Amino acid sequence: MRQKILWIAMFLLSIQFASAELLINPSGFQGTVFVNQQTTAEINLTNTFNYTIYNINFSSLPDANIPILAQLNPNETKKINITILTTTPYSEKTSNSVVRFSYLTAINVESKGYFINITNAGFIPQSINIKRGDYINFSNNGNLDAVIVDQYNHRYFDNIVAVNQTITISNFNQVDNFTYFDLNDLTKIGRIAVLSAQEDLVTNPADNKIFTLTITSQMLQSELGLEVFPAPNTTVEYNSFQELNLRVFNKGQNQVSNVRLSVNQLPEWFSFDDNNFSLSADQNRFIKLRITPIINRSEDTNKTYSITVTASSDNTASVSTGIDLFVPFSEEIFRTFFGADFWEAKEKFCVKFPNALECNPPPKIEERIVLQYVNSTIEFDKEDAIKNFREINTKMEGTETNVEKNTKSINDITEMMGRFEQILKDINSTAAEAKINAAESEKGFLTSTNNVLIILLTITLLGLIGYAGWRAKKKKDVNTSWEFAG
């Protein structure tokens, strides 16, 4: 029967020991924190063991710091703070920390005895250090009986030690420091420190706990603004480019992180001179948007493309603005493919595909240049005028010497015209003389006739030379007027 009772007592003791643990309340933290904003949470730690535990520590957690608790006595509760500080945003993330602690145990179980003498002057030694499992012999060498008690309400001892009597106390099984007294003479005070044996601090993995941290890291919210100027409507010719200005600005009081610019249609046509940047509170950023239409068919010209530019970031809602991009009709795309034989190739193409856009281009409203020459008005198509002007410039390149020569020729012709007047006078005089001498000999007559014919041929030749000079001068004036028109 006694054996059965002993087994029951041991079983109850084992249940009590097994149920003891380190309690963590709450057993984790879950919530949303903000980047670069410190968050603090409170944790309660309770020791349900019947002995003191030491160095309660949490294994490292990302973006969190939990201090080490040096000591927690039996049935004691202490509060510690967990500090959370993130530097980047991320979605919900869970991490576990292993909570460990140590306790004192005697590695060397061999007990050792110590002596304390009770004298009329007090306890000798007054202070003593022992180890767990050791025992003490109290000997009363005074004149009066001693009643010794400890400060913990007789947890260690409450004994009467008569004169010349020695008693042994051996229940020092826990590391502790305490004071004891002689109730018959309260001036008699002693101190005992119960220390652990060698290698006293140990950790039992079975006692470890888990603390769970689940957090979502967000940026403090702000607000983005986006504008395009000078106007959201623009025209870009085929095979050219255009630049617009974007203003991206922070309308909120918190920093905007990682601003990203994009277009959702024809992204290969567009590029930004800056991207992926941050904006402080109330900051503006001016970005150039370069537009280069990539087109290889005439059907893709003479169209308006509606483009959406979007700005997004890590801590704001996205904002967008629209751009209407018109690309005028262009036949130059055919010229690119067919080269020097463009017109011949186009003619063949239009015979085969008479309804194609290239063969029926939309009417174009063009500016017209009016050139005034003397009293007549001539209208020229702008493109033809520019083309002719470029051709004339090409022909005139490097012809300064020729112009000088032409000027000299005109001056020579003018001089010859003056001489021509003198020649006419000479002819009239010669004709009068020929009439007077009409009766001269046939030989003389023929000679005079031949002279007249020679003079007439000379007059004709001079007239042609004069006409040619007049035409050259007129052509020069025309070229000058074309240059003025261009």
Account of the protein in words:
This protein is 27% helix and 39% strand. It is an alpha+beta fold and 486 residues long. It has four domains: 19-105 and 202-218, Immunoglobulins (Immunoglobulin-like, Sandwich), CATH 2.60.40.10; 113-199, Cupredoxins -  blue copper proteins (Immunoglobulin-like, Sandwich); 224-327, Immunoglobulin-like (Sandwich); 382-485. The strands form seven sheets. Strands 2, 4, 6, 8, 18 and 19 form a six-stranded mixed beta sheet that branches. Strands 11-17-16-13-14 form a five-stranded mixed beta sheet, with no helix packed on it. A five-stranded mixed beta sheet has the order 21-28-27-23-25, with no helix packed on it.
Task: Describe the secondary-structure layout.
Blueprint: H1 2-19, E1 22-25, E2 28-34, E3 39-47, E4 53-58, E5 64-65, E6 69-72, E7 77-84, E8 90-104, E9 113-118, E10 123-124, E11 127-131, E12 135-140, E13 146-150, E14 158-161, E15 166-169, E16 176-182, E17 185-195, E18 201-202, E19 209-218, E20 224-229, E21 233-235, E22 242-250, E23 256-263, E24 270-272, E25 277-279, E26 284-291, E27 303-312, E28 319-327, H2 332-338, H3 342-352, E29 368-373, E30 376-381, H4 382-396, H5 400-436, H6 442-485
Structure described in brief:
With 486 residues, the chain is α+β, with helices and mostly antiparallel strands.
CATH superfamily of the largest domain: Immunoglobulins
Shape: rod-shaped
Main sheet overview = 6 strands, mixed
Question: How large a portion of the residues is in β-strands, by DSSP E?
Answer: 35-45%
The CATH class label of the largest domain is Mainly Beta
Q: On the 0-100 scale, what is the average pLDDT? A: 78
Count the domains.
Answer: 4
| Helix content, binned percent | 25-40%
Give a count of the beta strands, DSSP E runs of length 2 or more: 30
Q: Which structural category fits the helices and strands?
A: alpha+beta
Specify Rg, calculated over alpha carbons.
58 Å
Number of H- or I-type helical stretches: 6
CATH architecture of the largest domain: Sandwich
CATH topology of the largest domain: Immunoglobulin-like
Low-pLDDT parts are 1-17, 365-382, 478-486
Distance between the termini: 130 Å
